[in-house]
Structure formats: C-alpha cells, structure tokens
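Researcher: Going back to the complex we discussed earlier. I've cleaned up the inputs and rechecked each line, so this should be the final set. Can you rerun the prediction on the complete assembly and write out the structure?
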Amino acid sequence: MRFLAEVAQAGAATGRHVVKRIGIIGTGIMGADHARLLTDAVSGACVGGVFDPDAERAGGVAARSGGARVFADPYALIGDDGIDAVLIASSDATHEEYVLACVAAGKPVLCEKPLAPTTEGCARILEAEAAHGSRLVTVGFMRRFDPGYTDLKAVLDGGEVGIPLMIHHVHRNPAAVPGIPGSALITNSAVHELDITRWLFGEEITEVAVHTPRPSGRAGGTRDPQLLILTTESGVLADVEIFVNARYGYEVRCELVAEEGTVTLDAPPPTSLRRGGLHARELPADWRPRFAEAYRLELQDWIDGTGRGATAWDGFAATYVAQACVAALESGERHVVGMPSIPRLYRG
Amino acid sequence: MRFLAEVAQAGAATGRHVVKRIGIIGTGIMGADHARLLTDAVSGACVGGVFDPDAERAGGVAARSGGARVFADPYALIGDDGIDAVLIASSDATHEEYVLACVAAGKPVLCEKPLAPTTEGCARILEAEAAHGSRLVTVGFMRRFDPGYTDLKAVLDGGEVGIPLMIHHVHRNPAAVPGIPGSALITNSAVHELDITRWLFGEEITEVAVHTPRPSGRAGGTRDPQLLILTTESGVLADVEIFVNARYGYEVRCELVAEEGTVTLDAPPPTSLRRGGLHARELPADWRPRFAEAYRLELQDWIDGTGRGATAWDGFAATYVAQACVAALESGERHVVGMPSIPRLYRG
Amino acid sequence: MRFLAEVAQAGAATGRHVVKRIGIIGTGIMGADHARLLTDAVSGACVGGVFDPDAERAGGVAARSGGARVFADPYALIGDDGIDAVLIASSDATHEEYVLACVAAGKPVLCEKPLAPTTEGCARILEAEAAHGSRLVTVGFMRRFDPGYTDLKAVLDGGEVGIPLMIHHVHRNPAAVPGIPGSALITNSAVHELDITRWLFGEEITEVAVHTPRPSGRAGGTRDPQLLILTTESGVLADVEIFVNARYGYEVRCELVAEEGTVTLDAPPPTSLRRGGLHARELPADWRPRFAEAYRLELQDWIDGTGRGATAWDGFAATYVAQACVAALESGERHVVGMPSIPRLYRG
Amino acid sequence: MRFLAEVAQAGAATGRHVVKRIGIIGTGIMGADHARLLTDAVSGACVGGVFDPDAERAGGVAARSGGARVFADPYALIGDDGIDAVLIASSDATHEEYVLACVAAGKPVLCEKPLAPTTEGCARILEAEAAHGSRLVTVGFMRRFDPGYTDLKAVLDGGEVGIPLMIHHVHRNPAAVPGIPGSALITNSAVHELDITRWLFGEEITEVAVHTPRPSGRAGGTRDPQLLILTTESGVLADVEIFVNARYGYEVRCELVAEEGTVTLDAPPPTSLRRGGLHARELPADWRPRFAEAYRLELQDWIDGTGRGATAWDGFAATYVAQACVAALESGERHVVGMPSIPRLYRG
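Model: Rerun complete. Updated structure for the full complex:
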C-alpha cells in the first residue's frame, strides 16, 4: 500500500529523499498534535496545507508547521496538486464526507476514529473504496502502534503463553462532561478496546453484553462505569471496564489470559518517587502522553505506506460492534452482533 | 546553534521543508543504526553519504539509506558540498582526526563517545573549536535524551524532592570480552554515568575512589564488578556499580536521594508475563533496545540544531574524570580530579 | 539449645495463662496444617485430641502436636471434657453432622468451608444454633484475616477512595482434576470471592450471571475458566475470573474501583530475582503459602474468641449465592439470588 | 464471643503443653511490644514478670499481659523461680549488667541490640558465657527472622544466583534527633546491616570505609546520610546507605549481586492505591510494622529454643565492626577491622 507514485524530491545531492506533503483538515487538539509530529518527528513528511473552520486556529498551526498553506475550503485542500495525502481530524460528523472526497480524488487519507458515527456512513465509505478498487483509507486506531500493545501481540503470536482464553481491559479517564449519554462511553472510549480486541485475536466479536453498577456520583447521571462483555468467533471472552469519571488519572491496562500463562500491559513510566509516605509512579492526566509514541509510529507507518494501520473495514466493524454494545446497554440483554461478511478488498 | 545556512529544498508546494544531508563515517553496528534512524525515523534528515574501511559494509548501509553515496575517503566525505553535517561512528582511535577535520571544514559533527580516548586528544579538539570560534561538536552521550533520565532531571530541577545528596547507579552488561583491563569498565561503560552525573547536577566531579570485590569467575581475570565513588563540587556523593559480566541481561538503573525524597529510574518495559511460577518483566540483552528512544531523540535534536547534546567540553570532562577513576582503581586511593577550568566557549 | 528441662505449668506461677485444648476432626492436609499452627504458632492453644478415619494419619499428627490424644470416634472427641473446642477439617459431606454435634454439646467449633455443601444442610445448622441461643460456629473463610484483604477493607472503610462501585477479582490455581463439573469451580473455589465480596461491602449479593469463554484445552472438558458477575444490594458490580487450570501458579488478586480511586491487592513476595533475562517475583504453587498468615491469624482470633470470623449465617449465605451462580452457569441467564432475611442471632 | 468461662490448665488434660514464663526488663516501646507478642501471638509463652524504673509503666504492661507480676528490682526478677527466661529491653547502657546477671543465674536471656555499647562490655559477656560453659545469650537482631531476609538467604544458599560478589543496602528513617553524632548512625542503625552482612555470607567483615556527602539540611549538623563500604573475608563488597532523616518514611532494602543474577529485597506491602495522579504503595513511618513479623518469629524461635538467633559472639562482632566504621568515619580512611578469633563456644 505504498501510496505515493510521484513524490517531492528533496536533497539535491542524494536525489533520493522524498517528502510527502500532508493536508490536515481540522486543527483542534488532535490535528495540531499531528501537525507537530509530521513537522518535527516523522521522516519523509511535511505539512503541505491545513483547513479549519476557525481560520485563525488554522493559521497558527500552519505557522508552526514550517509555513504550510492555509486553505479556505477543505475540498480545495483535498483536490490540490500540492497535497499528496490527507489527515482528517475534524469533528466526527464531518468525517464521512471528507473521506469520500479523498477517495474520489484518489488520495490516501488517515481519518481519526470514528470512521463515521453510523454504520450506514461507514458502509458508504466501504462502497466508495470498493468502487475505487484499492485501499486509500486508514482509520486512526493508534493503539495498534503502541509499543505495549505490539509487545503483547508479539508474545501472543509467538506462542509464549499458548491459546488465548480471556482478556481483561481497564480504560479510565479522570473526568467527562457530566450527564453525557451512557452510549458515549462505548462509542467514544470503549471503541478502542473493541478495535484492539479484533486486532489482537484477528477475528470478529460475535456477542456482547453490558453490565452496570450504580453510577458514580461524579458522573452527573451518566451510566458510568460500565462493564462490557465480548465474545469472539473462536470463543475468547473479553471484558472491558470503561470508567470516564475515574478521577485519579488516565489509565489503560489489560491482562491477556491464555492456556499457559498471562500477559499484562500496564506501561509503567520510567521513574518512581518516594515521598510523603508513598512509593509512587505518576499517572498521566489524559491519553496524549500515554499514547504519544503510538501516534508518532502510526503517522510514520502511514507516511511509509506499509499499511499496518486499521482499514476502512476495521472502522466499519468497530462502529458496528459499538452499536451492538449500545443496544445491549439499553436492553440489559446479551446481543448477537451479526457482523456482515468482510468485502473482498479487505481480505488476506 | 541551528547549524545549516543553506539547506536542500523539499516539497515544491510548501517551499519550506529542509532536509539535512548527513555523512556517516563508520558503518558498524552503531553507524548502521544511526543511518536507519536518520532515514526512517527522524524529521528533516537523510543520509547523504557513508564511509567505512569495509566498502562492502558501507555499500549495504548506503543501499538501505535510500541510495546514499559511498565515499572511498572519509576526508572527501567531510569536505563534500553535498554533505551538510557529519556523524562519526568509527573506531575510538580515529575520532580525534575526523572531528578535527570536520571543525576545519566548519561542519557540525556528532561524534560517538569517547570524543577521544585521551585527555590530550580531547584538548586538541577544544583548541580547534576555540580557534573556530563557535561550537560545532556534539558528543554522543545519548542518555541525556533518554525519557527516563530527562524525567529524573525534571523532577530534581522542579524541586519535588529537594536538594540532592546522593545517587546510586547500577550499570550492568551480560558479558564482556574475557580478560579486558579493569580500566575498560570505566572508560567504556561507566563513562556514561560520569557524564550523567555531571549533567544531572550541573557541576563537576571533584574526587573519586574505586572499590572492588573479588572478581566474578566469569570475567576471565578482569576486575569486574567495580564500585566507583564520586563526589561533586557541591558535595553530592555518587556511587556507580559497573558490572560487565552480569550474565542475566543489560540493565541501567539509578536512585537519586534528596532531602525530601528519592527518585528511581528503572524503566520497566510495558508488559509483564506470568508463566512457569514467575511474574516477570523481560530485560534486554544489550543497550540498544534500552536506549533506542534516546538515540532517536538525540539525532532529532542534533538535526534540529537545538544544542541540548553534550559539547566537546563535556566529552573532554568525561574522559578527564574517567582517567582519574582509572588512577584510583590502580592505586586503591581516593583521587582529587583537578579539572581544568571551563573554556569561555562552553560557559553559560 | 532447648533451654528448659523442667517446664512451668500454665497458670501455675502466674495463675493467669490459659490454654484451650482443641480437638481436630480430620487430619488431612488442612487438619495437619491447623494442628501445626495451634501447636507451634498460636498463643493460648494446644491440640487436645484428634480424630481421623485413617488412624495412622491421626496418630502422626497427634505425635507432632505434643502428644495429643487420638480418638477412635469423632463424637467421643466432641463430647470429651478434655476438649474445649473443635476444629473440623474433614470431608465436606461430613461437616454438617459434626457441626450439629458440637452445637448440641455447646462447644465452639471452627468448620472449614463449606459449612455444608447444600443450603438445606446450612439451614439446619442455623436452626440448631438458633435453638442453642448463642453463636458457637465459625466458618473457615480465612481470607477475612489475610493482611492484604484487611488492608484493602481498612482503606475502603477509611474513606480513602470514596464510595465503591466495582471490584475485579482474579482467582487462579495451576491445575485441577480433569473433567470436574463446572459447578465445582464455583462451590469450591469462587466461593471465597463470594464470601469476601459480602464481607468487604457488608451487604448481600442480589443478582448473578456467569460468562464462559471456550474452555482451556488443559481442563479435560471442564468449563474452565469462568467469569462470574455479581451485583450487591447497593449496586456494586463484582466480577470474578475463576480459572483452576491456569498452569503458571496460584494467584489471588483483586482491584476495588471506587469514586475517588482504586485499591489493588496483589500481595507481592518480599524478594525479586534478576536472572536469565527476567526480573521476576515468584508465585506460589498453591494457596497455603499465600494464605499462611491468614490461617494463623484466623486460628489466633478463634482462640481469642473475638468473633471476627465468618458466622454460620455467612456460611449459609456463601452456599446460597454459590447455588445461584451454578444455576446461572447452567442456564446462561442472569439469576436473582433471593437471599432469605438474616436471622436475629446474626444481626448487628 | 469469648467462649471459655472455665479454662483448662495447660498440661492438665494433655500433660504435654508447656508455657515458659518470661521476665521482661524494660517496658518502653520495645518491651511493651514484646510483652504483647508473648501474650497474644507466641505459642508456649507468657509474661511472668516485668520490671521498669517507671513502675507505673511496668504496671500497665503487666496488666495488659494477663496480670504478670511487677518486680521492684530487676535482679529479683532475674533470680525469681517463677521466671524461666529473661528479655532485656532496657536502655543500652544497662544491657551488660543484666545479661551478666542472667548468665550468673543460668537463665536464657534475649537482649535487645546492642549486646553492650562497647566491645569491652561485650567481651565481658563472652567471658562469662565461656565460664558458664554453654550459650544462654541471644541478641535481638530480629532481621535474621524477617521473611524477606530469610528468603534472600535461601535463594543465595540454594545456589540460584551463584557466588555472591556485592550487596547494596539502603536503610532510611524519616527523622532523627537533630545534631546527634554521626557515629550514632552506625552504632544504632547501620549495625543491623553489619549483622545481616555477617549472617548472610557466614563470614567476618575485614575492612571498612565510610564516605559522606554534604549533610542533609534536615539533620541539624549530623553527618547524615553516610555510605559505608564493607569487605568480607571472601571479598564480598557491601555498601550501606544509612540516612536517618530521609523524611519520606521508613525503608530497608537491599540487592545482592552474584555471578549469575541478583536478588532484591524490598518487601512491598500487599496493596497499592491509585489516587490523585499516582499509583502508590504506602511506606511505614517506622520500623515496627516493617519488622512486626520478624519480631514475632524471633520470639517464637527463642521460646522454642532452636537457637537460630544471634549469639553473644554475633553481638560482640557487630559492636566490634561498628567501632571500626566509626573510626573510618572519623579518619576518612579505610580501616582494617582486625576481628579477634571466634571463641570455641560459638564455633560450628
């Protein structure tokens, strides 16, 4: 999936270094972070252009990205000859239309999750990509590039602990907007675990259930926390504690339980403090320091075009399973997922 | 210290992306690793040329670096207009002459430690740089960029644990060449702790002593392990266990002891295994996985020209203190270091 | 250096030291361990008599217990004037009759779990104790005395983490008899978590569900592992991974999730090893080293008569909830527990 | 639920249970703790009598020890027929005379460390015990019974890590009386590490040195912390960080470095907390919770008369090495210890 046929030439002497010019749509927290990484920490990339409804914000990011061009129209950016590929970090509702425009323009696109908020929207992208005839879309499930998760998968795939049976996930944020619907915990947060579970075991989730304790008094009425129970095709049982008002910090952990042993991912920071009666390691306040390396590696991989990122099908499947979980949350019953079969473009 | 006046233009549309063309002298393990990082993982750099006495080895690295040019003469590489800066990863004894050539050519140079094996050699580089009038030399003490060490320093500098009093270092390699002189443990290995101690506290080491237990039966006669005792200008006491035949793996740790608490750097990997009666984290077999991120950040910082790396003076001082430690090892007595005063070019 | 030739008679010199003479019924692994603790590590107790269907085994334990008397009939032991209290460590099916005999004799009795295998059996003991008019029965849920669990409860009760919302339990044994029924995982093993959950939150479990992955190939057909989901009166959600063929070792852990933070019990051993590429802590092969201190403290507390141990009602409730879990396992549905109301004798 | 109205006389029914009546001299913090353990947590012991210059304090401890007799004269206690053995927890300066009186009375005695503050005092006890002809004296180096240290020694003696080369000790207290002499850190605190080092390797310390950083501003002029360097007969190198104003808590740790691996003793508590941005384990405020189990096991071992405790010779040797360390601290030079040869009574 090396996606750039023609690239900018850089370096007169070597004549061989190529730099992809990335157009960024959406320059909020995530878009600005990506612009910084593409400019400062990724090989073979530069920010070629940016668009944001807030032109001032776009201008600031452009200035900090080596003087990238500011576009007034996202479709003009997508279509510009000086833009080799597009990164979408705009609001969720706009993802579908921008991704479709990129596919129509034949340009590689990295879209932040979700690919689209609805399974119908995701399906339209699958159809467009099928019509195009090759994969152009990558979905920003960055955890697939986290050294902790890739280490976990390497241990599993290496047979070091035998056949997998269960996985316990914990996913906590310190605070969320009070009173958000309980479904948002699934579609915004636990969707990462849905993707990781599919990726880790290389198979679909077939059945889901959701259990909930009394909600935290800090949640403003949201059904928070929740415990999702997922079953995969081969019978692996995954549970996911999602808790978005956990107060104490941001934390993502899991333990894979297999026939001969278990693997735990907890990613402790490199230092610990002894102070005030405690021996402690610090926990981050949000997800960005925890997954900073994953974002960098995700972008580098996308620029390199090696195609290890989540496909449009993965984006569709994550949204599909999330919807099943929302239904299970609302009904209180186990739900069979009933995933459609994978299109030919995404097989093998 | 942004060192490139003229840079290659990359990206027609932006007109702003610059790529520094790096010449690499020495394409053994370290040089090849650096070439890979510059090609695949650093922003704004490419490998412009390589030299190695083993032309076949040089050719392989050049091919894996996007088709870099292979030079038959290191001085031709240094002088070539298509080379913006030079990275020296050749044998220790050759460092001095190549660094001097770079300074003569007015080109930025990153030299793997040691800057030179002798204090006299280091001093000649200081003189050359003084004559040149600005800093061109960076020494590859990569630990200064390790996220663990920078985190440790941030905690210290942030006043979280108060005034520092002691630091305990542990530095272990699984195996060394049997029968190497005991001094090699200091000049090759513990020299990293000498540099880190100076960097962490921002002051010189004034007195040293070395204690040794009976040597390991695995060391082939080498005085291994050793315990170095260092005192800094302000009275911080540092001890360094250096053990190059520790068998079980590679490990670098330290604990900083201060008036209100302590900070420990141990850098655990992100995952742990439960298997065969043990709950375990894996230790690496050598220093490269442990300091992979440090090397990448060191190179990115050097390419960015922000000047956070070790200077020629730091390279001189590390060699100077190492020599005092060797004298203390041989005499069994405490040695006063007697460091010369810092030249004007490296102050402030 | 055994220094006393002639020994003092307890109470003789001081007139104040009392020693309870304990009769032990069942001298298998658990009974023999208890005999050893009562003889060697508990204050104010001695083994006064033992009974076992295997008279030779009983004789061996008696000999190692300072020459305790061997009874040929368990009811004779219970009724003997030289026996102050009775410890029952015989096979599960015999618990009920021996406990009833102790109550009839008015003697304190510590019965290993389960109090009785059926809720009907447990109910008969409740009736007998009610008729007697005061509590004589303690059930051997030793985890209530484990320093880890009591520490966890102290943190919770001290308000350090706020109102509890969830608890995740992990309970693993290395191997079980192949092909045992899946219900045995609940009634023999997870019953400890059922008791601990009730004890920790001071309330009943009202609803249960059981999820199962594909079974481990090591389980010989047993549905192993299982994931129990429990809901308490106030809405705390507890999940229990029970896995009796986990291979790698014995392990009991939990994490309590509350509104302001979490508490994890993992009880690491005091030492760790670095060897062969690993930094590891050892895990025990079975539950006895893990809970050795809990057993000692449980016995000391029972001898002291302070009544902190599990009551007959706790024994009844644990069996009652376990039966609900077995029903949930078999039906695949959530089950409402429908616990009877607590008899007056056990209130307050 | 104290269930026995009438209690059995020990030995009456079984004729075999013996209870040693212990006389305690000194009922301060340590003496009161020992009285509690002997009464509540040790098998085969009771407190037969107590003496303290503060009669009220003695009376309180006696009352909490089952009504032990209060003696007005320590020598009367030692000589009383109702006292089988004596525990000395009085002020350091009085140890020698009480121990000598016990030896003269032919009674077993457990003396808190130090056996005597001076080597001369210790030597007089050795002479008295030699004259008596058998060992009566045990010195309260309780760490020899700590499960962490015994585990460490078992790993070493089991050959799991090969031949020992070094050991790094850390010993920290939160605060000490400001301005105490630097020698007190050695004789009061680090003396535990001196004893443990001798016990662990089964050999004498032959050479010592002391390094000191600038003192902590919290130490009121005391030379605190210090780094002791010890060499044993076989050439093991031990370093001891002793820091009595470490502020953050009480902590004792060590890492044994051997030819094939290392063993670390850090004794983490069974639970950890996630709260306020930290994942933390609590550290105790003083040594008593850390060594509670060691004290209990030490007392039980002493009551059992199995003789695993430190002998009078160990008490002498610890004081002897401590004096050499004090000399090294004062001179700033390495000191050869020059230990006398071990008397026949303590060999083998």
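Model: Worth noting: DSSP finds ten helices and 16 strands in chain D.
Researcher: Good, that matches what I expected from the previous run.
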